[in-house]
Amino acid sequence: MRFFRTLIFAAILVAAFFCFTTYRSGRLHSADWLSHPQRVEITEAAGSESFDAEEQNNISVYRKNIASVVNITSRVMTYDFFYGLVPQEGQGSGFVIDKEGRILTNYHVIADARQVEVTLHDRKKYKATIVGTDKSHDLAIVQIKAPHLQPMTLGDSTNLQVGQKVYAIGNPFGLAGTLTRGIVSSIRQVQEPDGLVIDEAIQTDAAINPGNSGGPLLNYHGQVIGINTMIASSVGQSAGIGFAIPIHTAKAVLNDLLTLGRVRRPALGVRTIPIDSEIADELSLAAEYGLLIVQAVPGGSADRAGLRGGTERAYLGNTPIMIGGDLIVAIDGEKVDSQQILAQVMNRHRAGDTVKVTIFRGKKKLEVSVELGEARDQV
Q: Would residue 199 show up in a list of annotated catalytic residues for this protein?
């Protein structure tokens, strides 16, 4: 009995101590600072702030072009583990280039597609027809029938400068109508994952992610200067290194894509070797750079224009070559000192164009007009 009285007394002491130190003091403490006013006063801005010049331009570029940028969904058929056909969807971007509903995008966005669907900015969906494809430049044109389309303005990408501002509009990760901003980081040759090479690709730090492919890269005036196509990233997302196909490359093939559905790849119809100062001294050439014509393809563009290939057998290392042919040093006034430069010049033209080829024939400098033929006819 004494034990229980002692236990009850201890419990009463503990309860009294808790009430005094915690509950009671807490209520008194709260009452010192906590209140319930009838009206709360906050600090508000006097009015909506005006946009600075840079923000105004960002908004202007977006509003001017957003209705012309589309989302492209492509459906392809693949095989599952049991060799059954399974439909798969891919997404990308594109932009309207005329009021007839033609849309420029990347080839890889619609490659092997059984069905292509275009979603406009107002969320209306249309079935699209593939008009033309150019795998080697990663370009394609699809067409929809829709009213009141707003074509984008195609700008000039031949004189871009590192540091100038650019904007990318597209649908990264399916998030429609997204604008990002950056600068031209570099102009360089890059290789796509499938091995295709893009000459004079526009490198930018404007955020580009999966789903941006095929969308426009714009200059400060809102004109298209490139087609966003790929990123360099170890995680498959933007790391500040994106690439776009220059719009002048697309312009050079648009007519063929629209009229033929394919591109008539231009070619001079020559086999060449690059020349450096050492080879030039050894062969007693008139210039220390250029492309020496080893062979002018019989019946090809160069052959018809009178350009000459080699006539004397020699060896470059262990490789037999023909020397004595014309030495190409420029095309349309642009210095040509490598086969890469020649390829870039060809990419700015199409079959049927005429170019001025500057050559040395022996020690004599000549200019020859050459009408470019189609590459597949001059193999």
A: no
Residue 108 among the catalytic residues: yes
Q: How far is CA 226 from CA 44, 130, 222, 319, in A?
A: 43, 21, 11, 40
Q: Which of 68, 157, 185, 213 does the annotation list as catalytic?
A: 213
Catalytic-labelled residue, pool 68, 74, 93, 108: 108
Residue range 211-257, pLDDT digits in tens: 999 999 999 999 999 999 988 876 667 677 999 999 999 998 899 89
Which domains does the chain possess?
A: 62-143 (2.40.10.10), 165-259 (2.40.10.10), 266-377 (2.30.42.10)
Strand extents, DSSP E, 154-300: 165-170, 178-191, 197-204, 216-218, 224-231, 242-246, 266-267, 270-275, 290-296
Is residue 134 annotated as part of the catalytic site, yes or no? Answer: no
Q: What proportion of the chain, given as a percentage, has pLDDT over 70? A: 85
Give the pLDDT mean for 67-77: 90
Q: What is the largest CA-CA distance in the chain?
A: 130
Neighbours of 352 (CB within 10 A): 13
**Which contacts of 122-127 are long-range, i.e. CB under 8 A and separated by 24 or more positions?**
122/67
